[in-house]
């Protein structure tokens, strides 16, 4: 690299540093054309300087790499609050002004640029949805690297540069992400280039990796399968030169690995296994590099004191003000911008062109790349239902067949993947293995359905599964995350953050819609009878129903054909987080294909065959009691309860309503799916009591129903945090959602006491007593462990 | 080690293997005194054989170590479902029968032992609460090692052996846990001895570490700061001999490190930094070791097929049955038990004695070691409140002073720690640093408040903070986890699992109560105005209120003195998960010490000074409207709204009710704190509308209130997933919880229209319009960014 190229890198870096500091401090005088005065300073100083010079260096260097190689590069910024740095760079390359024309490339634009930063009505201090070129929010730390891998999968031409701060490096999810390289196929996936940025300090003290000897940091990356190169120093020219060499070498190595692999053989380099060892860079620069060295007699540069605002009292303290001015002028703003406040052409030329710019790559605005999924007609996988509640099937197995054909249809487009923590087979989705293997680079001949190039992703980590999928979706592809219901809470926080991302993205016209995050919760609380209490928890429903209705949908299909209909809808949808809850065990089937299609489209409906009203409810006349059910096991118990009522108290008018689309129950206008109050009354009446069986935590349903006509008449039976190692039927008894509990509640709540009620009550009580005895004496008798279905 | 000692190890191991298999398969004939018949086999075969032989080896070896050294050892079993192995060992050592006398040490007891396993009414298939000697549930994977560290902190004599499976090793939290060694003080903490058990397979395929070359596994542990020793093989005697040497060497090294450190110097060994490198063991044995090698022509031992039940069809398939019998008889049950079914004395003698047994160590039943905290009188830290809503203070700062003195008082007992992801100072709890430093082994002279031996735990990982605390509590100590409200969701799943653990433990009389898990949520949604939307989320409340009321409490103190009272109560409590929610920013103070004490004891009360009724509400006469508030910012807005109403429509009778103890609102008998309906009516009336301001997600409150008299009259304003980078006041406006929104709602809901209502409505509308204009024009005007408090 010649000296002028190095000059260019440093010039870009200094300018970006300048704009970073300007955003943190200034509300006026953005180019210091006047002497700096207290009135130019924002009243409240927010922002994170410490990490920013490192991010600016990376950006400048990636720009050079792209110009040199014309590579497609996606930049993921882990260090949470390095927002002003990335904003500065996207402004310099022009993308910020293209996306936000009011922030133009002139003096007025610069004034708006600095004023908008971390200020009311402006933009957050961290990298976030409004930042072009980002698919990653730098708020909750831990997911940078897992998002990077998700972006790289099936994007063979892409290089994902991912800066990981040594703060984030302390989180569990980040530490778990390094192993992503074991799942990266050099033939068909792109590359991830981690840049572990060690500035050795967090908000108020040292980081763990900052205190670990160099050789241990490198050993850690090597042990995870990487080949790290070190770049360290505090002299800008020196560090830029070193980094440029390291980056060039990394790029060459990436291309070499890919070329060898794509020519039909894996490259050597990995000891023992013969797999490639991908390059990584360890960047060690002072925290707050090139900022104030000492403030009020205390060292700042290179310490935790540089984390946020290194000169805190600029408005009040003239010495701080002078220090700030000297610091900023040191970056020579007058030399970087012309008289109109426009970046000088020599600097502007250092940015790549068009969509190769990091801020405008379509990979960071995945909707631009998104193609509709070539979905097969889901009717092809339908269960034949000769009559309601007559046959049983494993509902998720049918979905597995649909996914299998989806894999086949996306064999060349490679834009769909299933992610699952080690349970694809267990969740009855194993049909996919007829078409695709599980991805693992270090496969052996004796393995079953495992190998490089596989597109089924299994790793025993909900964080990795969900994070990979998020990265995959945000770069314009499709997918599904299937997991145990209880352990879905492991990555609940990621679901929240992804929901918030989508909420933000929907407000920005320039962000094209992306495919929805589809989460299939199976192995549910009601059927984790054999695993016990720690495996029984439907809490993700609680988490998601509080999130924005613009984004969140919750579906509880009662059977296979409804699941197919719901899944088809979810896989076609955009910008949602779809929760689909259904168990994997054999279960009764209720609706034929057409009925299921209509039922799911409506979101909820009366099951005339299960109640006493037959085909059509009499709108003018409310039944004596309504039985409502939401979810597969609740539907089973409700249908059985209605059958008991029909048989034993035939004169009681009973209506059965099944709900698939949970949030359709939310009163309008709270959710786009909210059914009208008229429709609600059609289904549930206005005065009649509604004995409701709900899959999730019983009381959570009340927060959905509040505001509906006479909502207090809904009596919800649901999961009540009662569980143990037991039988499926005992689970519904323990939680008082069994058919007998529902019958007893229906008789208690019904508008009249039918003939036979007392006898039926006795019957139910007897059954429950027998059941309790059965459980109590079980260890002595050891009768068959069986699933009590629909019998009295 | 001589041959007879090796014989003993193998004999114990084979016997434990036998009992493991017996639990998985048998319901009768536990010692195979008859030929094995289908009727002896359980009707449903559940359990995990694959990991069990390794766990049995570890147990046998730890027994020997304890007998040899009299060391106090706690055994933590990460591999989730290895329950039958640990149960077998505790049975053999006698603790199972001591805890559960019905499962005696004879033939009948053996029959009960095998029947109870993973069967309805019995025990789960994974290591769980009922297993003596365990502080760790093997259900949700990822927390074994973090629990081990929590147990070791401040237990200088303890060695925590922690088996980590290669499945669990794939999770993010586990990968993040290795670094715990950087926080372990050899002078004052015990030791953690990780045993990374690589059997190379999970449920249906290879593990990542199982496929990584040996040297990379070792490099990974070395890079994390450990000195791993390898034990590998498939010949039992050979592996036992190797493991015994490795374990002896590890023990000697642990004691050497501790002796040197406790003599006043750190031991050498760590390259570069001079810190000790703690021993670890990598154990590589075949999955399902010593089980069937081939079943139905397919290899089983050493493959994923050995994960659960290696012979699946024993009842139906005579060949499988014969294979099972041969397998079991290979362990020679007839030689291990006497004619009464009692373990032969030679084997029984291999177990340690009394509380040195792994199943009966008090460290695994921490309540037995628990001492009451020597809490200072919290009144000492009270804020002086000359009158309600007259002064402001940072409430958490007062708590920090209490914690400081708690640190001082526990200087010698060392049984309290604060855990916080890097935010102790930011959360205004920094007073603790006057007494204790942050623990970090690799400290430097220039560091502030950081060093070995510190008891304030900061690491940028919610998983580590919470997991360490859980381990610390379950071994009989006290503590608090303070974290950002939004990012508390990162470890929400751990909070759920800990709650479930406590629910289970409360039902077992032999488990002595432990100190509560106290979670302080600060930096709340309402005051993360500057950070923006990703930092705004009160979701942990939603998660916790669905959990069991026997364990969960949620407190929202409105000010400093209430916080002190609540914290004092929580720190004294046992077996709870206490959520305390309060922001860290300067906030209005309402109650003097005595008033706060009484208010918190009651859980909720009328604030006469804020409403129109003065000192005492007139029980007989309902006000025109009730304003209820729950949380600090809601209290501020409610008090301001009441003030506006008093000033502008003085004839309107307004009552202000503040709620500290959220679940007191739950109708009885759902929560032990549920206030009676009489008390509820005293506070909220029966007919009057209640305009409620709630800290959390607005609609979540309805699930708490459902079932209270006329619950539909509660109109809740709360967090509504509206947020951005803005001002604190704009946050309450965006979520329609501002004083003006509350006033408008109160006027709309009040039982009569007072004189002046229209004018006040106009005033509110004007203020909101002005506010919207303020926000819209903000970037142009840049007025002071300020916190609008109590003014119109």
TrEMBL record, chains A, B:
Keywords per UniProt: Lyase, Thiamine pyrophosphate
Domain Xylulose 5-phosphate/Fructose 6-phosphate phosphoketolase N-terminal: 3-368
EC number of the protein: 4.1.2.22, 4.1.2.9
Requisite cofactors: thiamine diphosphate
Xylulose 5-phosphate/Fructose 6-phosphate phosphoketolase C-terminal domain location: 584-790
Pfam families, per the entry: XFP (PF03894), XFP_C (PF09363), XFP_N (PF09364)
GO molecular function: fructose-6-phosphate phosphoketolase activity; magnesium ion binding; phosphoketolase activity
A biological process term (GO) from this entry: carbohydrate metabolic process
PROSITE patterns in alphabetical order: PHOSPHOKETOLASE_1 (PS60002)
Enzymatic class: lyase
UniProt record similarity statement: Belongs to the XFP family.
Protein's name in the database: Xylulose-5-phosphate/fructose-6-phosphate phosphoketolase
